[in-house]
Specification:
Layout: E1 5-7, H1 16-22, E2 25-31, E3 34-40, E4 43-48, E5 51-58, H2 63-70, E6 73-78, H3 84-92, H4 100-104, E7 108-110, E8 116-118, E9 123-134, H5 143-149, E10 157-168
Antiparallel strand pairs: 1-10, 2-3, 2-6, 4-5, 5-10, 6-9, 7-8, 9-10
């Protein structure tokens, strides 16, 4: 494993809007024996239930959903721009059909809590699941969301994860 330094999540000084929405992230779930990762650009970070948390959203057809439902934890990995092609690949190919590490050159490692992250990441956030719920279209207050984001009616499952720790390579 490369040289990561553990930091207090409260010390993160980065724009969540840029990290998630512009730079993207890999959501990874499972353990070193069996895992999958997917690219995501929707999510959030904040405070809930007196805990630092992340919100992730996974569509029902994504292979990663099977893994995040089985395991207690998951990671969010953020990368420098030079790894954008790896994130593009992980967002457009299923782990059911290929080995994403072979295709991208990313190197998985086991975190302290037994989850999977990547040595090439510049920031890893390790999480423990606290809550999950399927999005319900009856609760959209803006009708355009359903037609624009869900033409196939494949509504995301939301996961709230407690942030257990953060690792940085910088």
């Amino acid at each position: 494993m490369k040289n990561f330094r553990e930091i207090n999540p409260l010390e993160l000084n980065e724009s969540v809007f840029r990290l998630i929405g512009k730079e993207w992230m890999l959501i990874t779930a499972g353990n070193m024996d069996s895992w999958n990762t997917m690219t995501a650009s929707w999510g959030a970070m904040g405070e809930l239930w007196f805990k630092p948390v992340v919100f992730t959203f996974i569509r029902p057809q994504r292979y990663t959903l099977e893994f995040i439902e089985k395991e207690p934890g998951f990671t969010l990995s953020f990368f420098d721009a030079k790894h954008r092609s790896a994130l593009n690949f992980c967002g457009s190919h299923s782990g059911r059909d290929c080995d994403k590490t072979d295709a991208t050159g990313l190197t998985p490692f086991e975190t302290a809590a037994g989850s999977v992250a990547f040595e090439e990441a510049r920031l890893v956030i390790e999480c423990r699941k606290l809550y999950s719920q399927d999005l319900n279209p009856d609760h959209f207050l803006d009708d355009s969301i359903d037609s624009k984001c869900y033409p196939n009616k494949d509504y995301h499952r939301m996961f709230v994860g407690e942030v257990l720790g953060a690792l940085t390579s910088q």
